[in-house]
Amino acid sequence: MPAKSPRRRVFFSFHYDGDSWRTSQVRNIGVIQRSRPVDSNAWEEVKRRGKSAIREWIDARIARSSCVVVLVGSETADREWVRYEIEKAWVEGKGLIGIYIHNLQDQHGKQSRKGRNPFDIEVEGVRLSDHVKVHDPRTKDSQRAYHRIADDIEDWVELAVRNAEERRRVRREHAGRSWLSRLLG
Prior knowledge:
The protein has helices at 16-27, 40-48, 51-63, 80-91, 142-184; strands at residues 9-13, 33-34, 67-72, 95-100, 122-123, 126-127, 134-135.
C-alpha cells in the first residue's frame, strides 16, 4: 500500500435519497479531510435554483478536492448528478474511486442490493471502468464492511490521487509531443 501522506481533501459523490445514512457512516470515519457535508435543506435550495446552480455548486467543491469518492449504493449509477461528478472529476484530473456501500446497514438496520458500477461509462473516449477501481468490502456483515472501509479508505484515496497525478503527467507529455510534431511537421 502507498506510504501515508497528509490527509487528502475528498468530495463524496452518492445518491442522497437512497444512501445518505450509509454515506454518513463512511464520511465520519475521519481519516481523510472531507468537504463539509451538505444538509438536505441546503441541497434543496441549490436544486430549486436549477441545473446551472447545481453544476456550479458541484464544480466548486470538486475544484477544492484532490479526490472524488463515489459511494456506490443500489441506484448510484443511475443518478444524473453522480454521473456529472464522475465526468467532472475525470476531466479535471482528480483522483477517482468507488466504494460499494450496499452492505452497510441503513437507519432501519437494512442492507440494500449491490448496484451497477457507475464507472462503466465513456468519458473523453476512455472507458472509466478500465481505469477506476471500485472497492468492494465483500462481506455480508455490516460491521465487517464498515471496518474494511475504515481500515483501507485512506490508502485507496492516496492511490487514486497518485493515479490521477500520473494521468495528468501522461496528458501533458502527450500534449507536448502533439505540439512538437505539429511544429516539426
